[in-house]
Design brief:
By secondary structure, this protein is α+β, with helices and mostly antiparallel strands. The protein has twelve helices and 13 strands. It has two domains: about 150 residues, Beta-Lactamase (2-Layer Sandwich); about 190 residues, Nucleotide cyclase, GGDEF domain (Alpha-Beta Plaits), CATH 3.30.70.1230. The protein is about 55% helix and about 25% strand. The strands form two sheets. Strands 6, 7, 8, 9, 10, 11, 12 and 13 form an eight-stranded mixed β-sheet that branches. Strands 3-2-1-5-4 form a five-stranded antiparallel β-sheet.
């Protein structure tokens, strides 16, 4: 009986111990549950903050990619996200200019403070505080911006993060609170991330602007080259290629505008060409003209003459315009002698084909009005005046193989050229008879 009582007593005592420990276990369970809930809430909050920061960063990057070269949308989105996520009141973005800063963008600032920034967008900061510690300006000045930030904007806490490119400060992002409450390390890191994105946007804008400028320069260069080719083409219609190139390169095309100058004019054509063209097939006429123009064209270019016009077999060339010539009369006579020799060989060939054709030249010297005439897409270079008429009339009077020159031409070439007088001619359009001289050859050097 006693043993049973002892045994029963022990059992009763154990039950009492268990009953006493139950509240402690419950309290421990409640404490663990509460701790788990706290950790879950913290992890949830951190996850939400991380997601919010990631979303904000992604939004800014999207704006950077969708607005190439446009900085304001990027700056505004960056400041808006930074102010919101950091629990701040407003924010500014500054762009560095030497030792000073210019306001680049602002978000959420009071109206009075924004007005202040509009009136004073550039400032030299105090080197001992805020932005001044980033730029370290050589000259210390009292910062009116600091007073305005405190008095007009009510700022009490701020964080300033530099915008760095290759370790050089190019700007800064500043976020403000109107109460004394420090920013956390995570918030500061977020502002640093936004500052880095702002630098990326600025660099992208710079590269895009450089590319646009390069494209504009290339477009302008192409336009200039096309224009130069067009001008060259127009000039080469009546000038030797080298002369046309010289005028375009020197930009002296104003010389082609209407002006007056002393020139030597040469006119040449084929004797008997009208009868030949009336009695021959058109194909034969065109073939003969091609040979004729090819022969005299090369000589004109070689002597630097300006082709004034050619119509069928008639060709007029002037010297001393638009490119000056020391002795234009002598240059014209020397060219005429070479022309006579070259066309003489063709005449022999044409005679074998049964074509009775000759070649004559007239040369005169005097003043004329010169310049381009015509219309858009079809311009010619013309010499208008008595000198042109005299050259044409002398050519009409010239017999096959003759080079008739006026007295003024003779005065300029008589030391170098052998001539013979051929009499006086009553030239059409000229009031007085004119003595003409036929060029025989160049004088032999002593």
């Amino acid at each position: 009986m006693r043993r049973r009582e002892k045994s029963g007593g022990k059992a009763t005592k154990a039950q009492r111990h268990k009953t006493a420990d139950a509240p402690k276990a419950r309290r421990r369970g409640s404490s663990v549950a509460a701790g788990n809930e706290t950790n879950l809430a913290r992890l949830t909050r951190e996850l939400h903050e991380a997601l919010e920061q990631q979303t904000a960063t992604s939004d800014v990057l999207k704006i950077i990619s969708s607005s190439p070269g446009e900085l304001q949308p990027v700056f505004q989105a960056m400041l808006e996200n930074a102010v919101r996520i950091c629990g701040a009141k407003f924010g500014n973005l500054w762009l560095r200019e030497g030792d000073a800063y210019r306001i680049g963008a602002t978000h959420g600032a009071p109206a009075a403070y924004v007005d202040f920034l509009r009136t004073e967008p550039v400032f030299l900061p105090n080197p001992n505080v805020g932005l001044g510690q980033l730029a370290k300006p050589a000259v210390a000045r009292h910062s009116r911006l600091r007073e305005a930030t405190i008095n007009l904007a009510g700022a009490r806490t701020l964080v300033v993060v530099p915008m760095l490119k290759d370790d050089e400060v190019v700007g800064a992002v500043s976020i403000y609170r109107q109460e004394v409450r420090p920013f956390t390390d995570k918030q500061i890191e977020l502002v640093k991330n936004f500052a880095a994105q702002a630098v990326i946007a600025i660099e992208n804008s710079r590269l895009l602007n450089d590319l646009n400028k390069l494209n504009q320069q290339l477009e302008q260069r192409v336009t200039d080259q096309v224009s130069e080719i067009e001008r060259m083409g127009r000039l080469r219609r009546f000038l030797p290629a080298q002369v046309a190139d010289l005028i375009v390169a020197s930009g002296a095309e104003k010389q082609l505008e209407s002006h007056r100058r002393e020139i030597t004019a040469l006119f040449c054509d084929l004797r008997g060409f009208t009868g030949f063209s009336e009695s021959s097939d058109p194909e034969d006429v065109m073939a003969l003209l091609r040979e004729y123009h090819a022969a005299i064209g090369g000589i004109i270019n070689r002597y630097g003459g300006t082709l004034e016009r050619y119509a069928g077999d008639g060709v007029m060339v002037v010297f001393n315009d638009p490119i000056p010539v020391d002795n234009p009369a002598l240059q014209a006579v020397l060219m005429a002698i070479d022309m006579r020799a070259a066309i003489g060989e063709l005449i022999e060939k044409w005679r074998k084909l049964g074509h009775d054709i000759g070649f004559g030249i007239g040369i005169a010297h005097g003043y004329a009005t010169l310049g381009t005439i015509g219309f858009e897409g079809r311009f010619d270079y013309a010499a208008i005046g008595t000198v042109s008429n005299v050259a044409s009339r002398l050519c009409d009077e010239a017999k096959p193989g003759q080079i008739l020159i006026s007295p003024r031409v003779l005065m300029a070439v008589e030391k170098d050229i052998t001539v013979e007088p051929v009499g006086d001619f009553a030239l059409k359009g000229i009031r007085r008879p004119m003595t003409a001289y036929n060029v025989l050859d160049t004088k032999a050097a002593d």
